[in-house]
Structure formats: structure tokens, C-alpha cells
Amino acid sequence: MKKLLIVLAVLLFAQSANAQLFSKERLANLENFDQRFLTWGYFLGFNSYDFKFEYENQFMDDNTDILVEAQSGFNVGLIGDMRINQYMNLRLEPGLYYTQRNLMFPNFEEEKDFLREVKSTYIHVPLLLKLSTKRLNNIKPFIVGGISTSFNLSSNEDNPEDNFQGQFRTTKATSYYELGFGIDLYLYFFKFTPSIRGVFAINDELVRDDDPNSPWTGNVTKMATRGIFVNFTFQ
Q: How far apart are CA 115 and CA 104, in angstroms?
């Protein structure tokens, strides 16, 4: 799924850039748009979240690793952009992100033991630095990076039940760093921006079972989110 998201985003960027660079039309749209100190907008998109696990026993074989089945989710949010200079902008992009990951634990026979559905609804707030190239015709490629935090509205961190009662628990708050790229497309009435971004959690998100020898969490030293966001921005 992640490979498919990346391929779709790259094809979209290539098609948009080709249309702008090699068409006969050379009229500049929204010529003074980037001179504004503050601009606003919104975004829509989709995501694919994953978990990366680290284990106390580093010599485990593949038959004991926790398997993660990622599913596509959706994103929606707002954008606040502050111009620093011609090539740098500071962006705040608060949004609502919905996703689901299915965890499969080996060495169990019954579905109630080996399958855990982790549904998450995040309020995600990144602070990003956008570094752009010089505008060429009606396009301007950029790279973006920064830090972010999220609050999981679906977290069951305080639930007294654990995996022995069928409850897989995760923390409420998570911190990340983010890296990505995109292309600003200056259309007649607005600026349209497709972008792709990778997010990587910094802190451990696993809430362990009460039993330290739990077959679900006993050997896990860290569980951290990895994800891909594909967003379409309108300003």
C-alpha cells in the first residue's frame, strides 16, 4: 500500500510538472500570491500508518515478530503559512487523521488472541519549514521538514483491561519528525499543492500489559509509528 501511494504521488507530480513546463501557455497566474506575509488554506488527503517494533530479545526469528497490516485512512485539516523570505515559509497544519492498523501476534490459534485492531483518530499538529526553489512558469517545487505532535482521540491508555481481556493499549500523545516534498501549482483562481510526507514517531507508544511476561507485550521494548501522508492543499 505504501509503495502504491508513493507511485501515485510521483505520477501526479510528474504529470502536473510536464503540463506546466511544456505547454505553450506561459501566462503567470497569481503573480503576487507569494508576496503575502500570511496565507491560509485547507487540505484533504489520505494516509498509511504502520508500527515499527523493537524487541528485548534481538535474536528472535521471523516466526515470533508481530505482523502489522496497514490500511488506508483519510486526512482533513487547515493550513496557516507565514512567509520568511522568497524561499522559506513556516507552516502550521493542524488536521484530523483517521487510520486503522491490524496487529497479528504469532503462536496463537484463536483469532481473539492473535488479532488486535488498532483504530486511531488523531488530532495531528505539525510545525514545518518549507524550502522552495525559484518559481518557474506556474510551478514551484519544494521540500518540507519539521516536528509534530498528535493526540489520539481513540486512545485507551487509561483502560484497566489489557490484552488478557482483548484490549491492546496505546498512549494518548505522540511526538514525530517529518520529511517530505511537493509542488506548488499556480492556477487561475487558487494555488493547488500535491505533496507527500513521511512521519516517524520519536517516543514509545505501547502501554504494556500488567503481567511483565505477557505474550503480547512482554518482549517489546519500543513500538513507534511510521506513516506516509499524501495531501492535496488548496490556498
A: 5
For 213, residues 6+ apart whose C-beta sits below 8 A from its C-beta are none
Amino acid type, 196? I
- All domains of the chain in start order, with CATH: 2-234 (2.40.160.20)
Residue 226, pLDDT score: 95
Residue 1: band (very low, low, confident or very high) from pLDDT cuts 50, 70, 90 = low
Cα three-residue angle 126-44-85, rounded to 5 degrees: 50
- Average pLDDT value for residue range 192-201: 96
Terminal alpha carbon distance of the chain: 29
Q: What is the pLDDT of residues 35-45, one digit of tens each?
A: 899 999 999 99
Could you tell me which residues are beta bridge partners of residue 99?
120
Mean pLDDT (whole number) for 11-19: 51
H/E element, 121: strand 115-132
What residue type is assigned to position 82 of the chain?
A: M
The HSE-up count of residue 15 (CA atoms within 13 Å, CB side) is 7
Are 152 and 174 in contact by the 8 Å Cβ rule? The answer is: yes
**Bridge partner list, 232:** 44, 194
Q: Is 193 exposed, middle or buried (0-12, 13-18, 19+ CB in 10 A)?
A: buried
The span from the CA of 48 to the CA of 3, in Å, is 10
Q: Residue 104 is which amino acid?
A: M
Q: What is the rounded distance in angstroms from the CA atom of residue 154 to the CA atom of residue 76?
A: 17
Q: What is the mean pLDDT of residues 96-121?
A: 91
